[in-house]
Amino acid sequence: MTAMEFLMLTKGPLFQAALAVFALGLLARLVEIFALGRAHNYAAPRGNAALGGLRTMYKRFEPDPGTFKAAPFDVVVGMIWHVGFIVALLLFIPHVELIKSTFGIAWPALPNPVVDAVTAITLLGLLAALVHRLAHPVKRFLSTTEDYLIWSVTFLVMLTGWLAYHRMINPYPLALGLHILAAEIFLVVLPFTKLTHIFTAFVARYYNGAIYGRKGVQS
Amino acid sequence: MATATPQRPQGQSMPTPQPTLGESLRRNGVSRRGFLKLCAATASLMALPPSMAPAIAAALESARRPSVIWLSFQECTGCTESLTRSFSPTVENLILDTISLDYHHTLQAAAGDAAEHAREEAMHANAGQYLVVVDGSLPGPRANPGYSTIAGISNYDMLMETVADAAAVIAVGSCAAFGGLPKADPNPSGAVAVQDLVKDKPVINVSGCPPLPMVITGVLAQYLTFGKLPELDEYNRPLAFFGQSIHDRCYRRPFYDKGLFAETFDDEGAKKGWCLYRLGCKGPMTYNACATMKWNGGVSWPVEAGAPCLGCSEPDFWDAGGFYDALSVPPGNSGDMLLAAGAAGVAVGAGAGLLARSKTKSAAKQHQTVTAAELEQKL
Amino acid sequence: MASIGDIPVKVEGEPAAPAEYGNALPVLSQVRHALAQLTQGGEPTQIDLGAMPFGPGDEDRLMALLGQGEVTASVDALGRTRIQETAYSGVWVVEYLNTDDQRVALHLEIDTVPRLLRSQPEDLSDALAALNTLLAASLDQA
Amino acid sequence: MTEAVLTPGADLPESGADESAGSFSLARGLNALREEMDAPVASFFSSCIHCGLCATACPFYVETGDPKYTPIHKLEPMRILWEQEFTFWGKLKGTLREKLPLEKWGLDKLLAGKQVTDAMLAEWEPLLYDSCTMCGRCSMVCPVGNDIQYMIRKAREGQVASGHSPEGLIAASVRAVNTGSPMGLKWKTLEVQIKHVEQSTGLPVPIDTQGADYLVLLSSMEIINFPEYLEALTKIFDHAGVSWTLSTQCFEATNAGIQIGSKDIAATLVQRVVDAAEQLGVKNVISPECGHAYTAIRWEGPNAIKRAYPFKVFHIIEVLDQLRAEGRIKTEGKEDDRLSMHDPCNLARKSGVIQQQRNLMDLVAEEFVDLKEHGKMQWCCGAGGGVSSNERAEDLKLAAFKKKKAQIEEVEPDRMVTMCATCRTQLEEGLEEHTMDIPVVGLTELIADHLVDKE
Lengths: 219, 379, 142, 455
Description:
Strand content of chain A: under 5%
CATH topology of the largest domain in chain D: Fumarate Reductase Iron-sulfur Protein, Chain B, domain 2
Number of strands of chain D: 8
Radius of gyration of chain A: 20 Å
CATH topology of chain A: Fumarate Reductase Cytochrome B subunit
Distance between the termini of chain D: 74 Å
Number of helices of chain A: 11
Oligomer: heterotetramer
Low-confidence stretches of chain D: 1-21
Helix content of chain A: over 70%
Low-confidence stretches of chain A: none
Helix content of chain D: 40-55%
Structural class of chain D: alpha/beta
CATH architecture of chain A: Up-down Bundle
Structural class of chain A: mainly alpha
Number of domains of chain D: 3
Number of helices of chain D: 23
Radius of gyration of chain D: 24 Å
Largest sheet of chain A: none
Strand order of the largest sheet of chain D: 2-1-3-4
CATH architecture of the largest domain in chain D: Orthogonal Bundle
């Protein structure tokens, strides 16, 4: 297979397939969660559950000062690479074009050198996160194969993207194809692993906020 | 230039050993300075650094004219048009005068049986030495040969017969090199590229739709000069011309790096000459020499004219997504598929969720009340 | 063969001033480097400007930066070749033209004298032989 | 089938009462866990990426440094069950394991699924009970928003049903159901104390007063360790002119069922409170200075008995602050030493009563200083959630207290104030263990001490 055939394969049928698996899997997972439902709560509420839920969806982006003090590395590195990942995903011009063509919506993007720098920082952040996972007693204790799997999948997407941007893999169709393939692996793996947290974290935060919001506490 | 193409008199047998290029130049009264100039221009033509000129001079001095047979199959004659519009007639003529273009059914004066006879004769006389240039793709061995024939001979038969005793094959244009437009989806004629059929001879691909004229002559010049095949990339294209991407050599590259893009063909960015990536430029994945050699005698080239690179020198570029869609945009309609898959996901999830829910419900039904009495048994 | 300039095109309004794409300065610094090499080790350099990814205006800008020097020469062999010394001694613009006066190549040469201007060794011996023949014939006549 | 159709749902045979302890089984435990699965649990388990930040919020991990005390790890059996039975991916894996010769293909390890076994539940018992007070601090810090405490409470249902709950809590539950008090306290004992209060205050303690505004509940621990509470309450209510009563039918507010994690036991105990309140026709029920009792009656109770109450439930601190706001509490003088406060988890973080106690402190304290992390981010004393009733957890309980101790040392108070008998006992014992001379007082008593004498 030539590099161009590989690129066409990843851009064409594989992309469609990955997108299909992703959409199907993710929605299935989400609906599966919601379908479980919740028991009716008979206790008289103190506060507004829905409002609390919505607030917590946002609030958990800000770490509380105590957690920052206890685990500054987690907070800073975690924040950096998550933001970096999202910036690279949503604000890189080729990605904006891709989203525009797929969903018909578009937004302003960042200059390439900015995304490049953000990506480099994100890669370093991910490496640091891995080292931390291997070194920190709690993280090492908790970590399963799946945790390392999703790290690898995430890292590969970023790495191949960065290498393709810098044209460090030749010829370019191969570089781009590898990046697209990595993204497809990411999409396919997402619904079936804890990568779903990208979406379910907001559901979880909502429930957390609603449970506490009902009791009058902003969690 | 084309009219200057030499036609060997009919029926004449193989001539006595031809003079070298150096000899024939001197015989024509070309001075040493003229020769130096020719070498400098040839170096430029071959995309070699000027410092290679002495080596070129030494090589050209003893170069002998090779015989060339040019076969045109499923093509639009664009490649020939490109070649005949080369901008530097002097150098061009010298190169083409030096080769012996023994068969080219668009350019040659002979027609019909005489033309075919010329081809057969050249093959016979120069067995193992001649070059075959092909433009156009051809119906593959399993396709209906009737899609393209010349003088009642199928393209496939003619190619295989002609190539049998060739020294090398040069596939000129994206059709010959990769199948091109005829091979584009759904490929009704079963078109294939030359390299799909010729496995036992070196094949040099000079892709492009059409290729830069200088690249065509440059490859010929290289063969003529050094008598050997140039270094090739993974698509068998000469690295000298196809070693770098349009993107890497594009004068608009700084705008890409700064993130300045034209978003429509008439916006401020387009007027200021910003990067055309978002307008579908395939420069990043396209390997060709347009950005430096340019077209029309160095006047301009597509990107300089404000048009995104179509990626015409790459395999299957017709099927590689819309010409005006950004490189990152996949071909096909993902949106509808996404909706369908999403709907299926909702259905699957609802099914799975309801099953799970019924599991909690049946668990609740099977609930055995914990009582103090039974707890007491544990103490 | 008609040149592209012969195609009748009417441009309405003033043509826009060519933008400058910033590729002149890198070449200039390459020239500076080559000149330093020439000064230190006597090693000449040739730069093929045809291989530069110039945008519209870049070449004009480079030429304006290099300026004009004292020497202008023309070589008539297989068409004209224009040779122009720049304002910087040792930096030469060499433009090769074909018999139709179209540019075939554009080089910068960083050297004490451009190669093409020098008499070539092979031509020297030919010249000597020719002179000998001429003298012999003249002496015979005399 | 016919029977099932005729008696839909509810009337399945009550199996517990007459069966032996052998009826607690893995199957019953797993069934109990299945009952507890809901959308929040599924979203929580889907979201955990093992960042381990919950560990930094847990006093048991912070003070021992043992990774097994990481809160989310305590839920591993429940997570395994969820993944296997409540995700299509898990079910698919299960089916593949069953139907395909994975071992032949060398894929058995890849798709290997851990099984929840009886041994596993036994192993997790100390993690779920001894090293967790269900304080909910982890639920506040989890970046993806997992309410871990919510799940711990649910996981304990499975532990009880599988027979893997601590002896101390079982005993407390049995006593609570059988005698009306987890400590086996009878009304007679309380009656003696009531007499004593009436004598020392000269005020009547109303008992079984029909139609009173407030039904006052107590906790056994208060009755035994802190008899001052009832006296203080009597004085304040007399002072503010509150119509209140005790009930002979039910005086105990605490709920061992909540702690051990049995909604059945919890329902039995809550039902007694509801019956007493409904019989007396009170408008409000007051939960005493006890944390989990408030959670039990206020939040879990209605769900345990599956209906809303015809009365409102308040913690005593809420009532006092209401009276203060209405101007019905007149105080004089203030404590002049440096006072700090411990928020009980159940009251503050888990119930939203945070400002009220501070309003009351302003009333009676000259120099009140909050611990650095307080309110919803307070640190647990280490004794709640049944840990104090679980003798096996004694060492861990004291270890966890070190976090509280460090917090107290930071602000160097002369005395600590709190409003939960369990917290108060733990603070007293813990401070004594570390030979720190910092007395602990209940907020209600502190208010009572400063009431303006009636004319």
